Amino acid sequence: MNHAAPNQKTFGHILGQQYTVFDGLAGMYVEAIYQDRHGLLWIGTIDGGISRFDGAHFDTFGLSDGLPHLSVTTIVEDADGRLLFGTFGGGIAAYDGRGFQVYTTEHGLPSNDIFGLQPQADGSVRVLTTAGVGRFVEGRCIECMTELAGKPLGVVYDMATDSAGTTWLATQGRGVLSMDGQRMNTDSGDGHDAGQLQWPWNFAQDTAGNLWIGFRYVGTEVIVGRYDPMSKQFEIIRNDGAEGAEVVQNGTRHVRVDDRDRLWLGRRGVIVYDGEEWHPFSADLPGVHFSGTRLTYEDSEGNIWVGLWGGGLIFCDPISVQLYDKEDGLPDNEVRQLSEDREGRIWIGTTGGLACLEDGQIHPVEVGYTLLYMVTDQQGQIWSGGPDRPVFKSIGREIQAVAVNAEGVEIKMLFQGREGSLIAWTSEGQLGRIEADRFIAIGDLWSPDCRVVLQDREGSFWLGCYGKRPALYNYRDGHLRTCDMPGIEAVAYVNALCEYQDAIWVGTTHGLFAISYQAKEVRQFTVDQGDLSANGILALEADPQQACLWIGTSGGGVLKYDGQTFQSIRLGKSALENIVDAILRDSQGRLWFGTRAGLIAYQPGETPPRIHIRQVVAGRTFDEPQSVSCPDSTPEIQFHFQGISFRSGAEQMRYSHRLVGHGPAEEWSAFAPANRVTYQDVPAGLFHFEVRTVDRDGLMSDVARLAVRVVPTHLRRLEQMLRVSNQGFLSQSQAMARLLEQVESMAETDMTVLVLGETGVGKGVLARLLHNLSPRQVSPFISVNCGGLSSGLIESELFGHEKGAFTSANAQKIGYFERADGGTLFLDEVGDLPLDSQRALLHILEEGHLTRVGGEQSIPVDVRVVAATNKDLEEAIQAGTFREDLFYRLSVLSLILPPLRERQEDIPLLAAHFASRCAEQLGRPTPVLGEEVVVHLQQYAWPGNVRELEHVIQQAVVLGDRDVIQVADVPFQAAEAELALPVEQGFDWGAEDEDEKQRILAALQATNWRIYGPRGAARLLSMGPEKLRYRMRKHGLQRPEKPSP
To answer: Which of 1, 156, 191, 275 has a CA 20 to 30 Å removed from the CA of 567?
Structure first.
């Protein structure tokens, strides 16, 4: 997209803003900038980690959030939408919106010091490190190149394939190398020391196929290399005088080619090369110097972000606002009048004289006086004048005095009439028309204090006065009448008049008025009502092209009114830039604003804003939620959202929202600046919160949606738990009590849950309990045993197929995911899925859409997935039989069901329950458990867990003929039990004051370095696996390498 404005000046008077740690930036040494697919800006720093910026808030991510190192060198987004952060010392950190997954040399990386990440078309990512290059795929580096031409490759800063197909590496010390080890000849033949150009920083390619190279060197001149792949010729492009005589040590640190084929260089500031000339680039920021420039980045709106080494981050808007002032040729910076002649020249009336803008250049026409009026006649000529000055008319780019025959009366002001006619006001207060350079009085119309005149479509005149009350008059049918409608009769100052949407709009010092004579009503708009940015209205201009009204204010910039919403546009940081006396939409569609700081050319944006829901408070706080669930006892639900348009700025965004399903709030609200809304007393049910935003130019975002489930009260959830207890989930152990509390909390969310535990512990029962306690309880619960699916038809079973998808597909089939739509899908033994099916499952979990086998249509599905396995998935990941990214997607929440042998106090309760249920089914009296049989049952290891216990008790009831179950009725010997002692019983914690590192190391050694699972170190230490991994990184604990065979 070409973001440039027509006839844009070369980087003149650019709006800018600096952000530092005081604004929330993570660090002051910026090394990487990236805008993700949601519009959020990510900033990597060397000294503080990561920042995420939405235009209003900086969110920081550091070590406590799981980032492995605070030095972040590069940021990209992979094919799955995860953000990948390269760190200097911590490897790669992948962020999926919930947390970080870290990949290091243990996953095959050449080094943990990362300089670059480059996503490829096949979904892989190139990794550039201090020890060579790797190819990263699905959580592992599957290819590494650490040597080239028999020598260690060492540091690789950048990598690029040129238009001839040759891949080049920017290396430290060895120069620019091709993949076959050949070094690019950087001897340009101009006498420059080619030996200095053996440290290339990075590459950029233009549309002609040239490869631009930034080098490290010492000197005062600007140097950048250009390589032509077709001719295989290298040359130095230099500019000796671009930055004075300052010596730089790091040369041209960063090069980038934009979509206009301009080359951006970072070298003690920012310099732009257009192929012919060099242009310095900076913003109007007093006290800020661009000398510490590390890199530049262009976002989707065309804004330029400059990362400084030690100075933080700078935002620059080089497009929307271009300011012309006295330095550009204006007689004075106070622009009061604007007009366009028939040749398209822009005429500018200032308090210091008259000027003309043509072909981007300002030409003073006459100076030394204050211009009071300027209008365009029917022939497209400009008429102008001032105090004690004759009337002038333009001839080309010049003006000449016009001797208006006014019978001895002095022309004091000229106004625009209908269809280009000229309305004159004399020093005696007489109004009339100018025809053929003659003044013709309009009846007896006389007004000594006239400030502005408007002739409406019916031909009547509106006169605005200044410093008297009443200040508004209407002349119709030969009669002059005061406008005494309610609200406007007290106004003493009228600055502007305009006809728009069948109303007369009146700009005053007390706000804006719209007078409709047909409806006999007056509407007033003020700051207090939330409509205006300032009450002083200085200029009004109806815009047929955009069907809106432009409003110039006294200090509040410009307002755009589309008949429903006032949109504020701030034109700069100073008050003078936001005092707008004149507005012009020219014949080319460009917008011009006359301000007290000069003439502003305004280019509206073309990129719609984005919006995201930052936070929901509903009894507790949900940050960046994907869905929200809360009990109906929650008194209120508050949503906090933020529009993203860096050019507009957070303060100029306006929002409209609704809560679908909640009767009082189902309709879209009017657009307003508040970015929070609160709903009170929301009843139980399923709702969807929707919000949209418009930026200062009226561009509207897509709608952001969030599912909100308000669930019944705690008493109902307890009743549901009692009903579920009939399924054999009885417990009186503390371990199970804690587990059920977790289940109750997890049931309120839509996040995926991974249930871990041995065979027979009740993973399926737990999954159904999660479903029954959730807002999805009225929707389907579908259970699938992944291990029992036919190997060749797994994807067909899970995702469905279309007729004719394969030989036996005689009809369309709906898969388990679609059958579970709106409900819960339980994937038992998920560890048995083959890798191809794992990939498809991961796609559905991330995108919420599926495609049937043999189909092309993407089908949305709303399914909560609960997965379960008795396998050690971490071992499966190491063995390459289970995807690591799927593991982390499934285990957003995890539950570990303890085996029956670890909760022996539950055995009597469960045995009695199973005996009662079986006897009831058989129509027999319920037998009781003998005292000895309870001890006997508790001594057994129960490798089959609860399921085995149920079968044993069923057999005792069916085959027994007594009212008491005795030891003889239980067909096993306690001596046959497997070793059942939990790992905790064999673990010596040591002294209470033993430090954390030693306790973690001891737990890891006791569990053979297994982290996850019932016998893993995380369970032993009573902490989550991810927390344990973070603590291991903190203490430098790594699994010992296996000895070579």
So the answer is: 1
Specify the 3-state DSSP secondary structure of 723. Answer: helix
Confirm if 817 and 798 have CB atoms less than 8 A apart. yes
User: Hunting for tokens 């009846």 — which residue is that?
Assistant: 443
What's the pLDDT tens digit per position in 814-830?
889 999 999 999 999 99
Q: Going by C-beta distance under 8 Å and a sequence separation of 6 or more, which residues neighbour residue 935? A: none
Q: How far is CA 1017 from CA 60, 307, 680, in A?
A: 30, 43, 45
The answer, yes or no, to whether the previous bond of 470 is cis (omega within 30 of 0) is yes
- Select from 59, 58, 31, 65 the least CA-distant residue to 47: 31
**Which range has the top average pLDDT, 110-119, 429-438, 766-775, 783-792?**
110-119
> Distance of CA 705 to CAs 634, 691, 692, 752, Å?
21, 7, 9, 20
- Give the domain extent around 956: 900-976
Which tens digits make up the pLDDT trace of 431-444?
A: 888 888 888 888 77
Place of tokens 């100052």: 493
Give percent above pLDDT 70 in the chain: 89
> CA separation (Å) from 953 to 96, 496, 877, 945, 974?
47, 93, 38, 13, 16
Is residue 287 left, alpha or beta, with left meaning phi > 0 and alpha meaning psi from -120 to 50? left
3-state helix/strand/coil string of 329-372: CCCCCCEEEEEECCCCCEEEEECCEEEEEECCEEEEEEECCCCC
118-170 residue pLDDT tens: 999 988 999 999 999 999 998 889 999 999 988 999 999 999 999 999 999 99
Q: Which of 798, 992, 1028, 756 is nearest to 890 (CA)?
A: 756
Give the Cα separation of 829 and 833 in Å (integer): 8
Is residue 936 helix, strand or coil? helix
| 502, two tokens | 């069948």
Check if the beta carbon of residue 893 is closer than 8 Å to that of residue 739.
Answer: no
Q: Does residue 720 surpass a pLDDT of 50?
A: no
d(CA 1008, CA 112): 25
Type of residue found at 242: A
CA 459/CA 851 separation, integer angstroms: 65
725 and 838 part of one domain: yes
CATH code of 656's domain = 2.60.40.10
Give 779's DSSP letter.
S
DSSP-assigned states of every residue in 92-104: EEEE-SS-EEEE-
Enter the pTM of the model.
Answer: 0.66
Q: Tell me the C-alpha to C-alpha distance, in Å, between residue 224 and each of 10, 40, 238, 480.
A: 21, 32, 6, 73
Q: How far apart, in whole angstroms, are the C-alpha atoms of residue 577 and residue 600?
A: 8
| Token pair in block for residue 450 | 């006239």
**Which pLDDT tens digit goes with each residue over 503-537?**
999 999 999 999 987 767 899 999 998 889 999 99
Token pair 């490190």 is found at 129
* Last residue in a domain, options 934, 953, 976: 976
Q: CB of 577 within 8 A of CB of 571?
A: yes
For residue 644, the cross-strand partners are 610
pLDDT digits (tens, 9 = 90+) for 230-249: 999 999 888 765 544 455 66
Shared domain for 819 and 916, answered yes or no, is no
Q: What is the layout of strands, in order, in the sheet containing 140-145?
A: 114-119, 125-129, 132-137, 140-145
Say how far apart CA 223 and CA 239 lie, in whole Å. Answer: 7
Based on the domain organization, do 953 and 991 belong to the same domain?
no
- CATH number, position 739: 3.40.50.300
d(CA 275, CA 277): 6
Count of CB atoms situated within 10 Å of the CB of 968: 13
- Residue 572 domain-assigned (yes or no): no
* Residue 623 structure tokens: 């940050």
Domains contained in the chain, number: 4
* Calpha distance 127→5 (Å, rounded): 38
> CB of 567 within 8 A of CB of 560?
yes
